[in-house]
Amino acid sequence: MKESNEWIEILSKITGLAQSGLYYSKDIYDKERYHQLLEYVDRLLNLKDIDTKNFIPNVLQDTGYATPKLDVRAVVFKDNKILLVKETEDGLWSVPGGWADIGYSASENAEKEVLEETGLSVKAKQLLSFIDRRKHPYPDMFLHVYKAFFLCEILGGEVKTSIETSDVTFFGKDELPPISTARVTYEQINQFFELLKKVPNETYFD
Protein backbone atom coordinates (compact mmCIF):
# COMPACT_ATOMS: atom_id res chain seq x y z
CA MET A 1 0.00 0.00 0.00
CA LYS A 2 1.32 3.45 -0.90
CA GLU A 3 2.24 5.64 2.07
CA SER A 4 -0.33 8.27 1.09
CA ASN A 5 -3.07 5.64 0.83
CA GLU A 6 -2.18 4.23 4.24
CA TRP A 7 -2.11 7.72 5.77
CA ILE A 8 -5.55 8.60 4.37
CA GLU A 9 -6.97 5.23 5.42
CA ILE A 10 -5.82 5.77 9.04
CA LEU A 11 -7.40 9.23 9.15
CA SER A 12 -10.57 7.79 7.63
CA LYS A 13 -10.74 5.17 10.40
CA ILE A 14 -10.23 7.83 13.08
CA THR A 15 -13.03 9.88 11.50
CA GLY A 16 -15.34 6.84 11.52
CA LEU A 17 -14.65 6.18 15.19
CA ALA A 18 -15.34 9.82 16.06
CA GLN A 19 -18.51 9.85 13.97
CA SER A 20 -19.85 6.70 15.63
CA GLY A 21 -18.83 8.02 19.04
CA LEU A 22 -20.74 11.25 18.51
CA TYR A 23 -23.84 9.29 17.60
CA TYR A 24 -23.80 6.74 20.43
CA SER A 25 -22.15 8.59 23.29
CA LYS A 26 -24.42 10.11 25.96
CA ASP A 27 -21.62 11.85 27.86
CA ILE A 28 -21.16 15.52 26.97
CA TYR A 29 -17.41 15.36 27.65
CA ASP A 30 -16.95 12.33 25.42
CA LYS A 31 -18.78 14.15 22.64
CA GLU A 32 -16.41 17.08 23.08
CA ARG A 33 -13.41 14.73 22.73
CA TYR A 34 -14.86 13.24 19.53
CA HIS A 35 -15.30 16.75 18.12
CA GLN A 36 -11.66 17.46 18.97
CA LEU A 37 -10.62 14.31 17.09
CA LEU A 38 -12.42 15.55 13.99
CA GLU A 39 -10.70 18.92 14.30
CA TYR A 40 -7.32 17.19 14.49
CA VAL A 41 -8.13 15.12 11.40
CA ASP A 42 -9.17 18.31 9.63
CA ARG A 43 -5.84 19.96 10.51
CA LEU A 44 -3.82 16.93 9.37
CA LEU A 45 -5.65 16.89 6.04
CA ASN A 46 -4.92 20.59 5.59
CA LEU A 47 -1.23 19.92 6.15
CA LYS A 48 -1.38 17.69 3.06
CA ASP A 49 -3.13 20.45 1.07
CA ILE A 50 -6.40 18.50 0.95
CA ASP A 51 -9.48 20.72 0.71
CA THR A 52 -11.48 20.30 3.92
CA LYS A 53 -13.93 23.20 3.51
CA ASN A 54 -16.95 20.94 4.02
CA PHE A 55 -15.22 18.12 5.88
CA ILE A 56 -16.62 18.53 9.41
CA PRO A 57 -20.14 19.65 8.30
CA ASN A 58 -20.38 16.62 6.00
CA VAL A 59 -19.22 14.25 8.74
CA LEU A 60 -21.67 15.66 11.28
CA GLN A 61 -24.50 15.48 8.73
CA ASP A 62 -23.82 11.79 8.10
CA THR A 63 -25.17 10.58 11.43
CA GLY A 64 -25.19 7.05 12.77
CA TYR A 65 -22.62 4.29 12.71
CA ALA A 66 -19.90 5.10 10.18
CA THR A 67 -20.03 2.87 7.09
CA PRO A 68 -18.48 3.02 3.60
CA LYS A 69 -20.27 5.09 0.97
CA LEU A 70 -21.63 3.41 -2.17
CA ASP A 71 -20.83 4.62 -5.69
CA VAL A 72 -23.14 2.99 -8.27
CA ARG A 73 -22.28 3.03 -11.99
CA ALA A 74 -23.83 1.75 -15.20
CA VAL A 75 -22.14 0.01 -18.13
CA VAL A 76 -24.18 0.58 -21.28
CA PHE A 77 -23.33 -0.54 -24.82
CA LYS A 78 -24.82 0.30 -28.20
CA ASP A 79 -23.43 -0.91 -31.53
CA ASN A 80 -20.32 -2.24 -29.76
CA LYS A 81 -19.61 1.17 -28.24
CA ILE A 82 -19.71 2.14 -24.56
CA LEU A 83 -21.75 5.02 -23.16
CA LEU A 84 -19.61 7.72 -21.50
CA VAL A 85 -20.52 11.08 -19.99
CA LYS A 86 -18.29 14.14 -19.71
CA GLU A 87 -18.30 15.27 -16.08
CA THR A 88 -18.77 19.01 -15.56
CA GLU A 89 -16.79 18.74 -12.33
CA ASP A 90 -13.44 17.83 -13.92
CA GLY A 91 -14.08 17.88 -17.68
CA LEU A 92 -13.19 14.18 -17.96
CA TRP A 93 -15.25 11.18 -19.07
CA SER A 94 -16.77 8.32 -17.09
CA VAL A 95 -19.47 5.68 -17.22
CA PRO A 96 -22.71 7.20 -15.81
CA GLY A 97 -23.22 6.97 -12.07
CA GLY A 98 -22.71 8.51 -8.66
CA TRP A 99 -23.53 8.19 -4.98
CA ALA A 100 -26.43 5.88 -4.19
CA ASP A 101 -29.53 7.74 -3.04
CA ILE A 102 -31.69 6.57 -0.16
CA GLY A 103 -35.04 5.08 -1.20
CA TYR A 104 -33.71 3.20 -4.23
CA SER A 105 -32.15 -0.22 -4.59
CA ALA A 106 -28.61 -0.39 -5.97
CA SER A 107 -29.81 -1.33 -9.46
CA GLU A 108 -32.51 1.35 -9.38
CA ASN A 109 -29.84 3.90 -8.52
CA ALA A 110 -27.83 2.83 -11.58
CA GLU A 111 -30.89 3.18 -13.81
CA LYS A 112 -31.76 6.56 -12.29
CA GLU A 113 -28.25 7.92 -12.76
CA VAL A 114 -28.26 7.00 -16.46
CA LEU A 115 -31.63 8.67 -17.00
CA GLU A 116 -30.60 11.83 -15.15
CA GLU A 117 -27.16 12.14 -16.75
CA THR A 118 -27.89 11.00 -20.32
CA GLY A 119 -31.66 11.08 -20.95
CA LEU A 120 -31.66 7.35 -21.73
CA SER A 121 -33.96 4.89 -19.99
CA VAL A 122 -32.15 1.65 -19.12
CA LYS A 123 -32.73 -1.60 -17.27
CA ALA A 124 -30.04 -3.11 -15.07
CA LYS A 125 -29.45 -6.70 -16.22
CA GLN A 126 -26.48 -7.89 -14.15
CA LEU A 127 -24.17 -6.82 -11.32
CA LEU A 128 -20.73 -7.02 -12.93
CA SER A 129 -18.55 -6.09 -9.97
CA PHE A 130 -18.72 -4.94 -6.36
CA ILE A 131 -15.35 -3.65 -5.20
CA ASP A 132 -13.52 -1.74 -2.50
CA ARG A 133 -12.11 1.40 -4.11
CA ARG A 134 -8.97 1.26 -1.96
CA LYS A 135 -7.91 -2.07 -3.50
CA HIS A 136 -7.78 -0.72 -7.04
CA PRO A 137 -5.59 1.89 -8.76
CA TYR A 138 -7.81 4.92 -8.23
CA PRO A 139 -6.42 8.30 -7.15
CA ASP A 140 -6.26 8.86 -3.38
CA MET A 141 -9.57 9.68 -1.72
CA PHE A 142 -10.40 10.32 1.93
CA LEU A 143 -13.74 8.53 1.92
CA HIS A 144 -13.96 4.75 2.16
CA VAL A 145 -16.02 3.80 -0.90
CA TYR A 146 -17.53 0.63 -2.32
CA LYS A 147 -18.21 0.69 -6.08
CA ALA A 148 -20.93 -1.30 -7.85
CA PHE A 149 -20.99 -1.63 -11.66
CA PHE A 150 -24.18 -2.82 -13.38
CA LEU A 151 -24.53 -3.95 -16.98
CA CYS A 152 -27.59 -2.12 -18.34
CA GLU A 153 -29.75 -2.41 -21.44
CA ILE A 154 -31.20 0.60 -23.26
CA LEU A 155 -35.01 0.74 -23.27
CA GLY A 156 -35.54 4.13 -24.89
CA GLY A 157 -35.16 7.86 -24.40
CA GLU A 158 -33.19 10.57 -26.17
CA VAL A 159 -29.59 11.50 -25.47
CA LYS A 160 -29.21 14.80 -23.61
CA THR A 161 -26.86 16.40 -21.10
CA SER A 162 -27.56 17.45 -17.52
CA ILE A 163 -26.25 19.71 -14.75
CA GLU A 164 -23.60 17.08 -14.02
CA THR A 165 -22.70 16.21 -17.62
CA SER A 166 -21.64 18.48 -20.49
CA ASP A 167 -21.56 15.76 -23.17
CA VAL A 168 -22.91 12.25 -23.74
CA THR A 169 -21.34 9.98 -26.37
CA PHE A 170 -20.79 6.32 -27.28
CA PHE A 171 -17.12 5.42 -27.83
CA GLY A 172 -15.37 2.45 -29.38
CA LYS A 173 -12.54 0.70 -27.57
CA ASP A 174 -9.87 2.43 -29.65
CA GLU A 175 -11.35 5.92 -29.47
CA LEU A 176 -11.64 6.55 -25.73
CA PRO A 177 -11.47 10.18 -24.55
CA PRO A 178 -9.57 11.32 -21.39
CA ILE A 179 -11.07 9.25 -18.55
CA SER A 180 -11.96 10.45 -15.05
CA THR A 181 -9.91 7.78 -13.29
CA ALA A 182 -11.32 8.81 -9.92
CA ARG A 183 -14.61 7.30 -11.13
CA VAL A 184 -13.57 4.46 -13.46
CA THR A 185 -10.17 3.26 -14.65
CA TYR A 186 -8.98 2.58 -18.20
CA GLU A 187 -8.39 -1.03 -17.15
CA GLN A 188 -12.02 -1.40 -16.06
CA ILE A 189 -13.32 0.08 -19.31
CA ASN A 190 -11.17 -2.34 -21.30
CA GLN A 191 -12.59 -5.17 -19.18
CA PHE A 192 -16.11 -3.93 -19.93
CA PHE A 193 -15.43 -4.24 -23.66
CA GLU A 194 -14.70 -7.92 -23.07
CA LEU A 195 -18.41 -8.22 -22.23
CA LEU A 196 -19.10 -7.86 -25.95
CA LYS A 197 -17.49 -11.27 -26.39
CA LYS A 198 -18.91 -12.97 -23.31
CA VAL A 199 -20.74 -11.81 -20.19
CA PRO A 200 -19.37 -13.58 -17.08
CA ASN A 201 -21.67 -15.80 -15.06
CA GLU A 202 -20.29 -14.55 -11.73
CA THR A 203 -19.93 -11.13 -10.13
CA TYR A 204 -16.38 -9.94 -9.52
CA PHE A 205 -15.76 -8.80 -5.95
CA ASP A 206 -12.92 -8.31 -3.51
Automatic annotation (TrEMBL):
InterPro entries: NUDIX_hydrolase-like_dom_sf, NUDIX_hydrolase_dom, UDP-X_N. Gene3D superfamilies: 6.10.250.1120, Nucleoside Triphosphate Pyrophosphohydrolase. SUPFAM superfamilies: Nudix. This is Nudix hydrolase domain-containing protein. One of its GO terms (molecular function) is catalytic activity. Residues 67-197 form the Nudix hydrolase domain. The lineage of its organism: Bacteria, Pseudomonadati, Pseudomonadota, Gammaproteobacteria, Moraxellales. Pfam families: NUDIX, Nudix_N.
